[in-house]
UniProtKB/TrEMBL annotation:
UniProt key word Flavoprotein: no
Molecular function terms from GO: transferase activity
Alphabetized UniProt keyword annotations: Transferase
SUPFAM superfamilies recorded: P-loop containing nucleoside triphosphate hydrolases (SSF52540)
Protein name: Sulfotransferase
Length: 317
């Protein structure tokens, strides 16, 4: 089992805490509800370590998402935006030598998984981290810090289909779509409910648009250049007029395209620290792939749930 799904990493304090938390199960294992979000036990340990130990720096950037919403893509784009400022053409691009998840590790599922005081000295400013936690949990150690948060949101039906494929690849067997669908609809699943995750960042972006940027996978697909410029401006590294004219935006978008990233050697042969092949983070990258996998009844049910949950928030889907 991947590390974050096991229960062997828990401190005595966490064991006591989880005995008082709402408990549920999905096909993979136990889930505990902490501050409104469901976590596998080891991930929860990572969340608690993060809450206890994370010391933000003013220039920190945190890339946030619900799983399978475009995290890998957002990481690649952010890395590429800062890399272009370095003007170092002598060596390979960092995206050629490491996967976006190696370059931008998860706080709760990687850096803080085992300790509340990990060694972060290899990160230079701006440090870029990532998370799947909802905003209210992420924000706790960030109080009064000016660091920036970018969230990527994706159509829930495509998230479900992407998650299903990812789980099948992970577990090397056909996962039951029906039970994954039920788990998504009930909200009881890793980092769920998905709508709470999305809405926490959506509201955060309305309250403080300079702190939280809300991006959408579908818009990144339909108008990548405009969305990449928006991201660059938010992160304080806008494209110059010269760059806009000399094709730099196109080049950056092409560098981070699914086709290009998935053809790189590192992403075909490499694995995450907990042995997930990098190749499993790249699949079709299409909008509306749910049509090939969900029945009309499933589509309707998700649409109705999401409509009800997003109602009054101003968030369109
Ligand atoms: P599909 O399974 O629908 O193809 P995450 O990065 O959050 O794990 O999300 C994975 C999804 O993003 C997968 O969707 C994957 O194919 C897609 N993806 C990965 N890299 C991408 C890129 N560079 N551009 C567009 N989509 C990408």
């Amino acid at each position: 089992l991947p590390l974050h799904l096991r229960e062997d990493n828990l401190s005595e304090e966490t064991k006591t805490l989880i005995s008082s938390l709402p408990l549920s199960k999905d096909v993979i294992g136990n889930l505990y509800n902490y501050k409104g979000c469901w976590y596998y036990p080891n991930t929860l340990q990572g969340v608690l370590n993060f809450e206890k130990g994370f010391k933000p720096q003013e220039t920190d950037i945190i890339l946030a998402s619900f799983p399978k919403s475009g995290t890998t893509w957002l990481k690649a784009l952010t890395i590429a935006l800062f890399e272009r400022l370095k003007n170092d053409t002598s060596s390979d691009h960092v995206l050629q030598t490491d996967n976006p998840h190696g370059l931008v590790p998860f706080l709760e599922m990687s850096l803080y998984l085992k300790s509340s005081t990990p060694d972060l000295s290899k990160f230079s400013s701006p440090r870029v981290f990532s998370t799947h936690m909802p905003l209210h949990t992420l924000q706790l150690p960030l109080t009064d810090s000016p660091c920036k948060i970018v969230y990527v949101c994706r159509n829930v039906k495509d998230v479900l289909v992407s998650l299903w494929h990812f789980r099948c690849a992970h577990l090397k067997k056909e996962v039951d779509m029906e039970s994954l669908f039920e788990s998504l609809c009930s909200g009881v699943g890793s980092f769920g409910p998905i709508w709470e995750n999305v809405l926490s960042y959506w509201r955060g972006s309305l309250e403080d648009p300079k702190k939280v940027l809300f991006m959408r996978y579908e818009e990144m697909k339909s108008e990548p250049n405009a969305q990449v410029k928006r991201l660059a401006e938010f992160l304080g590294c806008p494209f110059t007029e010269e760059e806009k004219e000399d094709g730099s935006v196109d080049k950056l978008v092409e560098l981070c395209s699914l086709r290009n990233l998935s053809s790189m050697e590192i992403n075909n042969s490499g694995k995450t620290f907990n042995s997930v092949p990098y190749s499993t983070f790249f699949r079709k990258g299409e909008v509306g792939d749910f049509k090939n996998h969900l029945t009309p009844e499933m589509e309707n049910k998700i649409d109705m749930i999401i409509q009800e949950k997003y109602n009054g928030s101003g968030l369109k889907f």
